[in-house]
Amino acid sequence: MRTLQLSWKDEHKGQVSPMIYGQFIEQLGDCVHGGIYDEHSVFSDEKHIRLDVLEKVKRLAPPVIRFPGGTVMCIYHWQDAVGPVEERKHKKNLIWGGVLRPEFGTAEFVEYCRRVGAEPMLCVNMASGTPEEAGAWVEYCNGTEDTYYANLRRQHGYEEPFCVKYWCIGNECYAEPDIGVQHDVHTYIRDAKEFIKFMKLEDKSIKTVIVGCDDTPGWNKPVLDALQDFADYFSYHFYAAENDRGLYGPFYGEKLFLDRIHELGELLDSYPEEPVNYSKWYRFPPRQDKIRLLVDEWNIWEYRDDEIYGLHMTYNWRDAVWAASMLNHFIGDIHIAGCNMAQLCNIIAPIMADDQGSYEQTIFLPCEKYRHSMYGKRLTPCLEGENTLSLGSDLEMSAVSCAVVEREGKRFVSLVNRDFAQPCCIKVPASLKGICYVSADPCAVNAREEKCFTETAVQCNEGESLVLPAGAIMLLQED
Ligand code: AHR
């Protein structure tokens, strides 16, 4: 059995942002309509919100939810989905197929966020929309003066502003969209600046997210050089897949993810804490804090050539272990300000809902348990001993992943054994207690009525060892 010695440095490396537990809903398939919202379901309330789903979302307690896309933002015009429901426009969803249903629009989304306790994050259409349209959306949501779009919101029954703070300036604009303008780096810089001007002049307090890129060389640095004063966050999307590589498939993407995060972190660090030479003629303030990274879409997505592009994913226990170790990375990285799991319901999702009811997929577990345990000040963990898991020549990673946070004088520890073949004996530096979650079969999936994993209480005294079973997730706190 592998043996490791756990320790941590008591030196804090900043606060873990609660925003790493964010979620995302897109007007895509049955994520919104037929997922969190359903006019026909017996589980819905008078506002058509699925209460069984809402109860689960509340347990996930996302501090922020992103909407309405995703790629669908290429065709999303917010004015189609506000005001009296019978007057809203039904249009073809030219991106994902089916109909782009307008009943769950801006106001319904903001109300949903309020019910859950999340901050809304909206994404503006740069592919077939205009900067003026985006500015008008900010005015509709946040306007307090006697102006047309603020008054339109009032006419729609919402006297108080929605105070939407987070705004994404496009989505994956580097990729050739299915429809609309494709941006190269120069046109993105030009257009994003124009969008931000129209939006920030409507509400100087909004926070903007500009588009970063995984695989288009020559994108990130020029975009940041030109826009870093105007933006608060730099977005990066990460999807893993099994790609016919078997049990450890999704872990093959980890090195790429860590390398990218490292590179992006270094790039972000190269900009001054406070903007310099920012012209006051912009008439809105520059960013107030250091620009930070937002992983505003992340999950396992196994693309398939079916009607829904494989987006109705079924997640097994291995995927829960993968998600838990991603959360450990998010906690440990000082550059990451937030993350949004893609997506919340039915589409590559922790929650599944249909006519029969709703249930939690395996990946729900780490999202829920970490959210309520792993927040506070970030400490640096250390696992001494032979902690390498090698699978042939092409995959080498740490077998046990760990994160440690501190709050109110207590340490909270998350341990994930990504080795599905052997347990690990871990000597601990303090008395710890908590819960161990594990499944006998990494390929097992949750059924509607039955979870595929067990929960066992754990207790271990200072200087003693605990056993972290193969493929287990363990959440501990100082006793
Ligand atoms: O989450 C599904 C899709 O993945 C989103 O619409 C897009 O932004 C990403 O490529």
Commentary on this structure:
The chain has 479 residues and is α/β, with parallel strands linked by helices. The protein has two domains: 2-8 and 378-478, Golgi alpha-mannosidase II (Immunoglobulin-like), CATH 2.60.40; 17-373, Glycosidases (TIM Barrel), CATH 3.20.20. It has helices at 51-60, 106-116, 131-142, 148-155, 185-202, 220-227, 254-269, 317-332, 364-373, and strands at residues 2-9, 15-16, 22-24, 64-67, 91-92, 99-100, 119-124, 166-169, 207-211, 233-240, 292-300, 336-342, 351-354, 357-360, 376-384, 388-391, 395-398, 400-407, 410-417, 424-427, 432-438, 454-460, 465-468, 473-478. Strands 1, 2, 15, 18, 19, 20, 21, 22, 23 and 24 form a ten-stranded mixed sheet that branches. An eight-stranded parallel beta barrel has the order 3-4-7-8-9-10-11-12, surrounded by five helices. Strands 5-6 form a two-stranded antiparallel sheet. Strand 11, helix 8 (317-332) and strand 12 (336-342) form a beta-alpha-beta unit. Helix 3 (131-142) crosses helix 4, helix 5 packs parallel to helix 6 and helix 8 runs parallel beside helix 9 (364-373). It is globular and about 65 Å long. The mean pLDDT is 96. Alpha-L-arabinofuranose binds at residues 26, 69-71, 171-172, 237, 297, 342-343.
